[in-house]
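hiii so um. not sure if this is the right channel but i have a protein structure encoded as tokens and i wanna go backwards to a sequence. like what aa goes where. can anyone help
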């Protein structure tokens, strides 16, 4: 394989943030509403749609630290695509979801529940369990961290 191609491919796939929400906007511009299969091929349906609940919140790094109950299962705040799974400094085990609104939601200090890279997750889907009763959240748009209060209800 050509070294230049391999280097360019690696850079695009592993180091760039692909804007799925921009692709959606372009699709809608040229083709109209979203293409929907409305349950086609779905063999099972979610029984519930969880909301975020917490006991206390404190400013933390670029977002917020939430005090949650023991064994707290973390729901996705908005639908989107999983674009990162791994360790982030000061956040621990982290999953980043590029939401349909174009905001990257960081969920830190979480033990994942079968979520994989590039999975599409629906709003309310349980992502995993918060570790040690603490969940870190941060929200990033266009490379800049945003005030968590705009996204946390």
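sure thing!! here u go:
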């Amino acid at each position: 394989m050509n070294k230049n191609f391999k280097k360019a491919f690696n850079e695009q796939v592993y180091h760039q943030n692909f804007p799925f929400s921009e692709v959606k906007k372009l699709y809608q511009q040229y083709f109209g509403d979203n293409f929907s299969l409305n349950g086609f091929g779905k063999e099972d349906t979610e029984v519930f749609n969880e909301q975020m609940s917490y006991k206390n919140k404190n400013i933390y790094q670029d977002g917020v630290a939430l005090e949650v109950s023991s064994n707290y299962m973390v729901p996705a705040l908005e639908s989107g695509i999983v674009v990162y799974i791994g360790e982030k400094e000061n956040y621990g085990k982290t999953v980043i979801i590029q939401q349909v609104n174009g905001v990257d939601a960081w969920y830190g200090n979480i033990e994942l529940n079968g979520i994989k890279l590039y999975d599409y997750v629906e709003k309310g889907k349980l992502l995993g369990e918060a570790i040690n009763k603490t969940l870190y959240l941060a929200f990033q748009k266009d490379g800049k961290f945003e005030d968590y209060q705009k996204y946390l209800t």
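oh and Helices lie at 3-14, 20-31.
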